[in-house]
Specification:
This protein is an alpha+beta fold. The chain is built from twelve helices and 18 strands.
Length: 399
């Protein structure tokens, strides 16, 4: 431990970071933490048999029942800083350096201490490694013990509650090298401390989410499965947002496979997936998934469905020279008109059947509870979304 302490101080003096390798047990991890080392690697974090790409992991609290990593995966884009919120070790902002030293040694090896005003607003952040290196250096105790802790602390890095994981990562990227591993303080709208987020935990959480997303992608369309749209539709219903649930499919796809070949059919699915991905990137409020094969499901805002319909139905599609057309079925879900994604999918099914019964490219639109549907014909320029006064009988909806 004396050698580790010396190496830690040496690394701090030359502006480098010390990493502990080969950590095998919780006891070794505790010893590494006590020495102020912030980066560790070893079988305790990622056993070799798991073949995980992340071979180096910053010190982190192991997953527990109430930790987000143990409660299933969310999409990386959905992760928020509050998903990784942990209690902060705090002292009044008037604390002395001796107070901070005592807090660091008395608690379960906190990585830092936050100095708070009486209104709970963070004023400084004392990082464990940097603080102890300065305090225990030559004449450190005599120079600093009774002085305000702020002289050895750093300005706090804060982020508002509700911020996304991407914003947090950008905050790390902009930090100086010696501060990129610091805790970030999460504050409410009034600037009051709510807790802290460990850099390592958030990075690992985002990486886990991205790995999970990759495993769920359809290999042809490069789009996730129906669970993504299901969650989005349920969220919109819970928020009382008007939206559209849409289904898209290639007409006569079996004939395309039988005539042009499976490779040409796969190419057509890939191209449709690329177009849908481009629409998702260019529009603000679109979620897309691939149900498998040539079936795609979308959820979007009401104002965006006409742009999607134009892009899909006015595009000439072909598979190895064989012309192809698309069918589009949409369900306009106004506030409280559907109860869940399951309810919306049940109401969308007859619209899909009606769209498939029309020869060539088609767009059939309906509303929950209506016994008729609007048949909208493509190739007539930009479509105006119809008012909810359906007038064309839909045999699939009769009765």
């Amino acid at each position: 431990m004396a050698l580790v302490d010396a190496l830690s101080q040496f690394a701090a003096r030359i502006g480098s970071r010390l990493a502990a390798t080969g950590v095998e047990s919780e006891a070794e991890l505790a010893a590494v933490r006590q020495a102020g080392i912030r980066i560790a690697q070893g079988n305790l974090f990622a056993p070799a048999r798991r073949q995980i790409a992340l071979s180096t992991t910053a010190l982190a609290v192991p997953a527990t029942a109430d930790h987000p990593r143990s409660a299933g995966f969310a999409r990386a884009a959905e992760l928020r800083v509050e998903d990784f919120l942990q209690p902060a070790s705090t002292l009044p902002d008037t604390a002395t350096c001796e107070d901070v030293r005592a807090a660091l040694l008395a608690h379960d090896a906190p990585s830092g201490v936050v100095g708070l005003t009486p209104q709970l607003r963070p004023q400084w952040m004392a990082d464990r490694g940097r603080f102890l290196s300065a305090f225990t250096g030559p004449f450190g105790y005599a120079l600093h013990a009774k002085k305000p802790a702020s002289r050895l602390a750093d300005p706090p890095r804060v982020i508002p509650v509700g911020a996304g994981a991407r914003e947090m990562l950008e905050l790390f990227a902009d930090a100086a090298w010696d501060r990129c591993g610091d805790e970030v303080i999460v504050v409410d709208g009034s600037g009051r401390r709510l807790g802290v987020v460990l850099v390592a935990e958030l990075v690992r959480g985002v990486a886990d989410a991205k790995i999970e997303e990759a495993t769920m992608l359809n290999p042809l369309a490069r789009l996730p499965g129906s669970d993504v749209v299901a969650r989005e539709v349920d969220r919109r219903i819970a928020d009382g947002q008007a939206h559209v649930v849409a289904w898209v499919d290639i007409d006569g796809f079996k004939k395309i496979n039988d005539t042009a070949g499976f490779a040409a059919g796969d190419d057509l699915i890939r191209e449709l997936g690329r177009v849908l991905s481009g629409l998702r990137a260019g529009l603000r409020d679109v979620t897309i998934s691939n149900l498998g094969g040539d079936d795609f499901l979308l959820a979007c805002g009401i104002g965006e469905i006409t742009t999607i319909a134009d892009a899909l139905l006015n595009t000439p599609w072909s598979a190895d020279g064989l012309p192809a057309t698309l069918s589009l079925a949409t369900l306009i879900c106004e506030k409280s008109s559907t109860q869940s994604y399951r309810d919306a999918s049940r109401r969308l099914a007859p619209l899909k059947k009606h769209a498939k019964s029309i020869r060539g490219a088609s767009w059939v639109n309906g509303w929950p509870g209506a016994d008729r549907a609007e048949v909208l014909h493509p190739r007539q320029g930009r479509h105006a979304l119809p008012e909810p006064r359906p007038h064309v009988p839909c045999p699939a909806l009769a009765g």
